[in-house]
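Sequence design from tokenized structure. All designs in this work follow the same two-part layout: the structure record, then the generated sequence. An example of the structure record is given first.
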């Protein structure tokens, strides 16, 4: 799933590519992706792109006073095309194409979504805040006003909620998903199941520093990369997420996993839980 660093880099890459270009047409190949009807898609035709920005994990293309907002969900991505086909795409359950944006010079971008679980969303709005997911976003962790004290207050308000879930909740902190929450907790040496309000002052300091050291570094590494390079860059630099069974780069222990119904988390027991493996509830049920 694209998270804050990847969406930030996508926004930067697309900003350079779309600068000075006008939107000629927007084709929807997956009708479930379009979540709004007013303004209509046709209102974007002929509008010049004024900029591309990010709100949490939402991508925002500002064109002629309207905003084409994309949420790439679990398996969405944006692919640049120097030349797009002249024939509009046809809806097909076998295709990964969800949306195609055609520019006035014949170039454009394809918004794709792999897999059968279709969650990608597109909105056309006058104001990004009109998108419910953006309106609910918590503070961005990389802004100057996201201080250590702000983080401490967030954790206290979350009470006994598990820290992993708090970091992933977009209404609490914007932009962090499954992958970077695993990476943050590994860098801060915290159990993903630790209650949010139980962190010591030193642990809050460490977690706040990890936000810049993990998420901030990922943004800096990704800056200037083309969209086609971002997935590889992310995977190469992950310490524990998606690396079940591999060696922890810090201590040499094996990276372990806890599975849930539709996701999983990865962690290092030596670094994060005092050497004690966490219970994998799904596996426990299978073994009964």
């Amino acid at each position: 799933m694209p998270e804050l660093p990847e969406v930030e880099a996508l926004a930067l890459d697309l900003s350079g590519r779309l600068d000075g270009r006008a939107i000629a047409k927007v084709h929807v190949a997956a009708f479930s992706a379009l979540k709004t009807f007013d303004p209509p898609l046709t209102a974007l035709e002929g509008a010049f792109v004024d900029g591309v920005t990010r709100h949490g994990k939402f991508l925002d293309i500002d064109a002629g006073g309207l905003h084409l907002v994309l949420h790439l969900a679990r398996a969405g991505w944006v692919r640049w095309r120097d030349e797009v086909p002249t024939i509009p795409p046809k809806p097909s359950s076998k295709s990964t194409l969800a949306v195609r944006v055609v520019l006035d010079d014949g170039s454009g971008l394809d918004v794709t979504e792999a897999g059968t679980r279709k969650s990608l969303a597109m909105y056309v709005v006058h104001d990004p805040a009109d998108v419910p997911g953006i309106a609910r976003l918590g503070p961005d962790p990389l802004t100057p006003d996201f201080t250590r004290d702000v983080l401490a207050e967030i954790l206290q308000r979350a009470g006994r909620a598990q820290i992993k879930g708090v970091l992933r909740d977009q209404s609490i902190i914007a932009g962090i998903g499954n992958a970077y929450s695993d990476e943050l907790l590994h860098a801060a040496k915290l159990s993903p199941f630790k209650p949010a309000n139980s962190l010591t002052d030193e642990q809050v300091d460490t977690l706040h520093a990890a936000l810049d050291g993990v998420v901030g570094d990922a943004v800096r590494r990704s800056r200037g990369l083309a969209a086609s390079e971002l997935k590889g860059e992310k995977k190469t630099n992950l310490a524990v997420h998606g690396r079940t069974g591999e060696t922890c780069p810090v201590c040499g222990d094996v990276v372990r996993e806890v599975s849930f119904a539709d996701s999983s988390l990865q962690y290092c027991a030596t670094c994060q839980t005092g050497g004690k493996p966490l219970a994998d509830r799904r596996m426990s049920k299978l073994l009964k």
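Residues 201-222 form the longest helix (22 residues). We note this feature because it recurs in several other targets discussed in the main text.
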